[in-house]
Amino acid sequence: MPELPEVETVRRGLQPVLEGARLVRVEARRPDLRFPFPEKFSERLTGKTITALGRRAKYLTMYLEGGPVLICHLGMSGSFRIETSDSNAVPGAFHHERPKSSAHDHVVFHVISAGGSRSRVIFNDPRRFGFMLFSEGVPDTHPMLAGLGVEPTGNALDGVLLASLLKGRRSPLKAALLDQRLIAGLGNIYVSEALWRAGLSPLREAGTIAKPGKNAKAQSERLAEAIRSVIADAITAGGSSLRDYVQTDGSLGYFQHSFAVYDREGEPCAKPGCSSHIERVVQSGRSTFFCRTCQV
Question: What are the chain's domains?
Answer without folding.
Answer: 4-141 (3.20.190.10), 159-291 (1.10.8.50)
